[in-house]
Design a protein that fits this description.
By secondary structure, the chain is of the alpha+beta class. It has 23 helices and 22 strands. A seven-stranded mixed sheet has the order 10-22-21-20-11-18-19, sandwiched between helices. It has a six-stranded antiparallel sheet with strand order 2-1-3-9-4-7, with no helix packed on it. It has a six-stranded antiparallel sheet with strand order 12-17-16-15-14-13.
């Protein structure tokens, strides 16, 4: 399956060069035909022009006929074929051949644009290993990556690319994760650390347990995202596609009338009437209009992919330039998502049980994937507190905390409002306010309706968060923070990154409702998140944006993925969107203006077929080249 995909990618890579070669060869045939015509070799000259028709027009004629049959609608490719054949019928072989040549050249240029966007996929595909060292019966056996199953153990040597997503169960090493996150500095990996397919094992041998099948790895999802982006058209492109079929029918209807009406109305000769109808068929064709959007969109998507910004479709890229507000999840987005325990407090009369309480709390929290829970478990580990306790049962109360039963006791871990007992028996109001003003989140511990301990945890703000917020504010976009923290903690984090508006004590199930309210107030709204509980809000927002290291649910729901986890990429994406929209508008205004000018010139008999061909196809090439500027 992978071999077929690679073969397909290889054919797609050479296709633009074949098409360009056909176009250029037709140009050589035209020059040869023109020279032969000057030497009075008319019959041979016409033969060369016919060859130019067939060779130069092959790709576009095939495309036009295939699209017409499949979609049951007319298109600009058929207009050009008809115009070229019409020119030949009235003896304008050279002009018709030139039309085919320039049309083929512009088509090859458009194919090249699409090929450039596919190169990002090809580059990614080449990073995916095809084989792995499977450990079977104590021996290392080389197998195809597709044969690996979840739970298999593989051996990865220094210098090799890791073939599948998994976790390290033996050994230590450094891993170059540039292919996934874009970070150039290798990351240390040890026992139980996650590793990703396509990344490079640098200096140590490791044994990895497979956690995902090859079809579901993060690396494969990146490839799928880029591939799908090509097939999802922007609203502008969808409009042009609908407009093209109607417009082509209108042009053919007008040309049909043009074949005889001017003879009776203006007294033109039949030859002149037919000639002007053919010129109209050429100059009124919407080739430049159709080519105004797709090459520019694909170039912009390719540009973004190269910079670690993956768009799932042109529609999301187009909309970004019109954003009015962006909501940010706090934990893991504005912050690193890896809080650390700054203080551990217990009720004064339970000081002797401090270590036992820590053990029980860690035993409960090890069942949770929440960053705060993981931080408490890490804290217990650093204190050499193992977690041997087996719980009777545990219940996750989403947005509030966890409830566990142990040895006949009811334990609760979570927010202040989740507690039944008096928290001031552990931490007084003044101390609590001070910690929260410093950006700490307080997690309370209750046993049998009595608060017995509390943890103060602080999440570190990402270095780039403040710059990202400043960039967005400079663009006139309102940043808003959503967090489950209380007012004091939320204010501390918001102040540190420069956000004015924030929504605190926001439960996961309420995030989607808050996004709806923000949309009503500001207009087009984006949401940036990384966790499973962000997925509903990402789906509710006009544009969902996920961090590359986020959960699968966030990656699948989002419309844009920031692979490098760099929030400053958001402003870059918006600039790219604005630039793309500006170029598309330039292309549309220019191409429509050229069509109007050429059509009017034809009615006044002030333009001939060669000049009409050059004006029409020249405008098509110019708008494609203008779109290609987005590759840089």
């Amino acid at each position: 399956m992978k071999e077929n995909q690679l073969l397909k990618e290889k054919l797609l890579r050479i296709e633009p060069y074949i098409e360009l070669g056909f176009a250029l060869f037709s140009g050589i045939l035209i020059v040869s035909g023109w020279i032969l015509a000057k030497l009075d070799q008319q019959a041979v000259s016409v033969f060369f022009y016919i060859l130019a028709y067939v060779i130069g027009g092959y790709f576009k004629a095939k495309e036009g006929i295939t699209d017409t049959v499949q979609n049951k609608t007319l298109n600009v490719e058929l207009l050009m074929v008809l115009a070229a054949l019409g020119s030949a019928i009235i003896g304008y072989w050279e002009e018709g051949a030139i039309l085919i040549f320039i049309f083929a050249l512009s088509g090859a240029l458009e194919t090249y644009t699409m090929s450039k966007s596919r190169k990002e996929i090809s580059a990614l595909m080449s990073l995916q290993p095809e084989e792995a060292w499977l450990i079977k019966d104590g021996k290392e056996v080389k197998v195809a990556v597709e044969q690996l199953q979840v739970g298999d153990h593989i051996f990865v040597k220094p210098g090799e690319r890791i073939p599948a997503d998994g976790r390290v169960i033996k050994g230590r090493t450094s891993v170059d994760q540039a292919a996934i996150t874009g970070e150039s500095i290798p990351v240390g990996k040890g026992l139980n650390d996650d590793v990703f397919a396509g990344t490079v094992n640098i200096n140590g041998s490791i044994t990895v347990e497979i956690t995902k099948p090859s079809s579901e790895t993060l690396f494969q999802k990146i490839i799928t995202l880029v591939q799908n982006a090509e097939s999802q058209k922007s609203p502008s492109q969808q409009f042009i596609d609908r407009f093209e079929g109607t417009y082509v029918k209108l042009v053919l209807a007008i040309v049909s009338l043009m074949l005889f009406l001017p003879h009776y109305i203006f007294g033109w000769s039949w030859n002149e009437t037919f000639y002007r109808a053919m010129v109209l068929l050429v100059v009124a064709s919407p080739c430049a209009v159709v080519a105004s959007i797709m090459p520019a969109t694909l170039s912009a998507i390719s540009n973004g992919a190269r910079k670690g910004i993956l768009f799932k479709g042109g529609s999301h890229l187009e909309s970004l330039g019109n954003l009015r507000a962006i909501a940010f999840d706090k934990t893991g987005t504005l912050t690193q998502g890896k809080p650390e325990v700054s203080q551990y407090l217990v009720k004064p009369d339970l000081e002797d049980e401090k270590q036992k309480i820590l053990q029980i709390v860690a035993a409960i929290e090890k069942h949770s994937n929440h960053p705060l829970a993981q931080a408490i478990v890490r804290f217990a580990t650093t204190k050499n507190q193992n977690v041997p306790f087996e719980l009777d049962s545990i219940e996750d109360v989403s947005g509030w905390g966890v409830k566990a039963f142990f040895n006949g006791e009811i334990w609760k871990i979570g927010k202040r409002a989740f507690m039944d007992g008096n928290i001031e028996e552990v931490i007084d109001e003044k101390q609590r306010s001070f910690l929260e003003e410093q950006g700490n989140t307080i997690v309370y511990i209750e046993k049998d309706q009595q608060v017995v301990a509390a943890f103060a945890l602080k999440d570190i703000v990402r270095e780039e968060s403040k710059q990202a917020i400043t960039n967005l504010q400079a663009l006139g976009i309102e940043p808003i923070m959503l967090t489950g923290d209380n007012a004091n903690t939320a204010n501390a984090i918001a102040s540190e990154v420069g956000i004015i508006h924030y929504i605190y004590e926001c439960l996961p199930e309420n995030k989607a409702n808050e996004i709806r309210a923000i949309k009503e107030k500001y207009g087009l709204t984006a949401m940036v998140g990384d966790g499973i509980n962000d997925a509903p809000a990402l789906a509710t927002a006009d544009i969902g944006m996920a961090m590359g290291e986020g959960t699968d649910a966030a990656l699948e729901t989002a419309d844009v993925v920031l692979m490098k986890n760099d929030l400053t990429k958001i402003s870059q994406a918006i600039h790219l969107s604005k630039r793309m929209n500006r170029i598309i508008k330039q292309n549309l205004v220019f191409s429509i203006s050229v069509i109007i000018l050429l059509v009017m010139s034809n009615f006044f008999q002030s333009i001939d077929l060669p000049l009409g061909v050059i004006g029409h196809e020249g405008s098509t090439i110019l708008v494609i080249l203008n779109g290609l500027r987005l590759l840089k």
